[in-house]
Amino acid sequence: MDVVVLTVDQDGSRTGTDRVPAALASLAEVPTLLAFERTVGDELQGVLDEPAALVAALEPLLRSGEWNIGIGIGAVETPLAEQARAGRGPAYLHAREAVTHAKSSPWHVRAVGDGDGVRALESAVWLWAALLSRRTPRGWEVADLVDQGLTYEESGARIGISQSAVSQRAAAAGIAEGRRARELVEFLTRTALGGGR
Question: Could you give the dihedral angle defined by the CA atoms of residues 59, 11, 91 and 186, in that order, rounded to the nearest 10 degrees?
Fold first, then answer.
């Protein structure tokens, strides 16, 4: 069974506050095969079997810019462990390698796996991270409203600006490009998992 093991380590944890509880809260709604949990210290881990779940998990982590993110793709031993941190198999080894190298990689993200398309997936995540890093708080405000299903007109009414101003913020925030990036990361994750999902 091929899965995604996501191993995430807090960047600069020795000098900062513990951000694991907030990260776990932001990941609570992500559908998982094995739920995200703290593994040790300032690290957390979860096991995903759906490409859309990786997209849902990555966005809040990339948005915060506070994490080294290791994406491991491959098999896990079955029967599955009851907790993510107790699992074994190549996907876990790949995730460990990835999070180690993420500390010195662009956007603090690496993907490691044996299947086709893992490098392309990593490249797509880097490009998505670059886009998200340029969003201002005002851009995120509009992006969050649009993600909730509001139109530009409804978003403008909610925050007290014109529809034209919302359009300008949306363009500056790269909302359309961000949607395409999500789609691309999901597609490439499916490819890396063998295309069967």
Answer: 10
130-144 mean pLDDT: 96
**DSSP line for 34-45:** EEEEE-STTEEE
Q: Are 109 and 42 in contact (CB under 8 A)?
A: no
Measure the CA–CA gap between 48 and 3, rounded to whole angstroms.
6
pLDDT (tens digit, 9 = 90+) per residue, 65-100? Answer: 999 999 999 999 999 999 999 999 999 999 999 999
d(CA 127, CA 108) in angstroms, rounded, equals 12
pLDDT tens sequence across 61-74? 999 999 999 999 99
Query: What b/e string do you get for 51-84 counting C-beta neighbours within 10 Å, with b at 16 or more?
Result: bbbbbbbbbebbeeebbbbbbbbbbbeeebbeeb
Residue 140 is predicted with a pLDDT of 96
Query: 128 with 146, same domain?
Result: no
Q: Are residues 95 and 145 in the same domain?
A: no
Tell me which residue range forms the domain holding 26.
2-133
Are 85 and 151 found together in one domain? no
Decide the pairing of beta strands 67-75 and 109-113: parallel
Q: Is residue 13 part of a domain?
A: yes
Q: Determine, yes or no, domain membership for 188.
A: no
